[in-house]
Specification:
By secondary structure, the chain is an alpha/beta fold. The chain has one domain: DsrEFH-like (Hypothetical Protein Ychn, Chain: A, 3-Layer(aba) Sandwich), CATH 3.40.1260. The protein contains four helices and five strands, in the order βαβαβαβαβ. Strands 4-3-2-1-5 form a five-stranded parallel beta sheet. α3 links the parallel β3 and β4. α1 packs parallel to α2. The longest helix has 16 residues.
């Protein structure tokens, strides 16, 4: 699928550097006019809960909250692995703007159409 890009993110506060760089890459792809999706799974789903990323700020990078906000503002898609989110007992009513609960089939469909993907 020409013009698409995927970032798969499994990290949150357990690796703030990885979580930050993932959204830096996602912003770069969205800024290059690629239809870009970030797929949050495992611990990464915590980033989809409002307020969770507010205090994450890696030296040398913009704060993670700002990176996520800019990504969504640029038309980026945030998919949240529903089983991973539910397993962690998180609140679906507190999703960040632009986040959507999905199953793995959504990612498989996107990647099967030819979207390249990087994983953090």
């Amino acid at each position: 699928m020409a013009g698409t890009f995927c970032v798969s993110l499994t990290k949150s506060k357990n690796d703030t550097d990885g979580a930050t760089v993932a959204f830096v890459m996602a912003n770069a792809a969205a800024g290059s006019e690629k239809e870009t999706a970030v797929f949050l799974s495992l611990e990464g789903v915590r980033l989809a809960e409002e307020g969770y990323a507010d205090d994450i700020h890696e030296e040398g990078f913009a704060p993670l909250k700002e990176l996520v906000t800019n990504f969504v503002g640029a038309g980026g898609i945030v998919w949240v692995c529903s089983p991973c989110f539910k397993k962690r007992g998180l609140d679906e009513t507190k999703l960040i703007k632009g986040a959507m609960m999905v199953g793995g089939a959504k990612l498989v469909e996107f990647l099967s159409a030819g979207a390249p993907c990087v994983t953090y």
